[in-house]
Design brief:
Elements: H1 2-23, H2 36-56, H3 63-79, H4 83-93, H5 99-109, H6 111-127, H7 131-158, H8 187-200, H9 206-225, H10 231-254, E1 268-274, E2 277-283
Antiparallel strand pairs: 1-2
Helix pairs in contact: 1-5, 1-6, 2-7, 2-10, 3-10, 5-8, 5-9, 6-7, 7-8, 7-10, 8-9, 8-10
């Protein structure tokens, strides 16, 4: 059954890639005279430059950036008070949550399936010489590498106990080398939100964006249902992914790495922290 489900997910991803390719403008300009190998080398270079820029960006931060970091950390800490009540509420509803959706969330957020999907998307863009799809793939891959490395180190360094361990939301064991102490942040959430946000940025239609974000939200929700993460694990990972994608997207545009017009900004994300309100707000 699981193999059949995995096959169905892969087929769904392939179909969505084809539809995505049809939605984007396939007009070829400057890449007409370049070989597939030349394009692949160029994209690899842009990926490495993007990752390098992302990790050195804190050296260029100003006061406003450090304030945002403080809000993210402070907001996450404040929301931990809701972790156990939310976990108890979600587990009471877990039996009513469709199993197929839970399985889709797990498979889609798993690194091996995630990067296989990315490879298929990039391959389509590369061999059709579609610059928009190539750029989107570079954005996804470089953002995934950046946020993935951050969450891997943070997950081990913090060593937060998973809800399924039944030890409480404030039990930690740094570098414990145990899966049960790798709750914060959520790797499934980092990958799924990174892909969803990177793809959604390529569309102007609000309903299309909403649909893409809805699909991207399935893995985080399924991880909560599976009792694998606390709510703050998911919330922090979501914000981290959005920040990384937006930062790298801005870098690629400013570098003029890919030659196509920038779409008018239709949604902006901001951290909001108040006595009775903590979270990330999207303004359409």
């Amino acid at each position: 059954m699981r193999k059949q489900l995995l096959f169905s997910v892969i087929v769904l991803l392939l179909v969505s890639k084809i539809s995505y390719g049809q939605l984007l403008n396939t007009t070829i300009d400057s890449t007409d005279n370049e070989t597939i190998w030349q394009l692949a080398k160029y994209d690899t270079k842009q990926t490495l430059k993007s990752v390098g820029h992302a990790f050195t960006q804190p050296l260029r931060w100003n006061g406003k950036d450090f304030t945002k970091l403080g809000i993210l950390i402070g907001g996450t800490a404040a929301m931990t008070f809701a972790d156990e009540p939310l976990q108890e509420f979600i587990q009471r509803q877990a039996g009513d949550f469709p199993r197929v959706v839970r399985d889709f969330g797990w498979y889609f957020g798993s690194p091996q399936n995630y990067f296989m999907a990315n490879a298929g998307l990039y391959g389509f863009g590369l061999f059709t010489k579609n610059e928009k799809i190539r750029k989107t793939s570079v954005l996804i891959i470089s953002s995934s590498i950046t946020s993935g490395l951050i969450q891997t180190f943070t997950k081990n360094a913090i060593g937060r106990a998973r809800p399924s361990r039944e030890a409480g939301h404030l039990e930690f064991s740094s570098f414990a080398n145990e899966s049960s102490f790798r709750s914060f942040p959520s790797g499934h959430t980092v990958l799924s939100v990174t892909m969803a946000h990177a793809i959604a940025k390529q569309f102007e239609n609000t309903w299309v964006k909403a649909g893409i974000y809805t699909i991207g939200a399935i893995p985080p929700i399924s991880r909560l249902i599976d009792d694998a993460h606390w709510f703050t694990d998911i919330a922090f990972s979501t914000v981290l992914s959005i920040i990384v994608v937006d930062g790298i997207d801005k870098f690629l545009f400013e570098e003029k790495a890919y030659d196509y017009p920038q779409k008018q900004k239709t949604i902006s994300w901001n951290l909001k922290f108040a006595p009775n309100q903590v979270g990330i707000v999207g303004t359409f």
